[in-house]
Amino acid sequence: EAGVAQSPRYKIIEKRQSVAFWCNPISGHATLYWYQQILGQGPKLLIQFQNNGVVDDSQLPKDRFSAERLKGVDSTLKIQPAKLEDSAVYLCASSLDTDLTDQFFGPGTRLTVL
Amino acid sequence: AQSVTQPDIHITVSEGASLELRCNYSYGATPYLFWYVQSPGQGLQLLLKYFSGDTLVQGIKGFEAEFKRSQSSFNLRKPSVHWSDAAEYFCAVSHGSGNTGKLIFGQGTTLQVKP
After folding, report:
1. Which of A4, A45, A105 faces B102 most closely, judged by CB atoms?
2. What are A94-108's pLDDT values in tens digits?
3. List of chain A residues whose C-beta atoms are within 8 Å of the C-beta of residue B46
């Protein structure tokens, strides 16, 4: 079974530029999560999708971050414009459903904002 | 609000020695508890989880953890550490009933293994 795929693995941009990350969850997984992991900290949930609907985006900085999962499968996370403090690893995870099901994580995208 | 505290930022143990990583949580009801491991350049891998029942749970790679409600703790243990266990370990908590699956992570403990 293929795992969660993410691309790119690394991205370096200058502040005020825009950037997009892509995630392909495990086939059949209805729930998709995007986490932000700043160096030295644990991951923090940015947004959670159930199929193509948003379940929780309470910690997503909506003035600059956006995410979509149009067909209930792949998802993209965008930052526009980026700030220095957005430098982090962005992790995508998926699970069969929300309740009592394991989350499987992708390798992450490491973003550096200069 | 829920929170997870991992008191030890960095731990060094000798290969073959026993290991205990501490985790304390703050949550009003019975939480769902998890331990994940993250190796450099890798995603998070689930080691074990506690939902209910037996408070001592067994996981992969020889790890176990014990849920102690009275101490609000969920410490991770391994009787004999291998060099390949060097990694970062995260404790996480999730809601109980009405679970949305959202995980709240601690800040992590980096494990270094000496030969």
Report:
1. A45
2. 998 766 678 899 999
3. 102-104
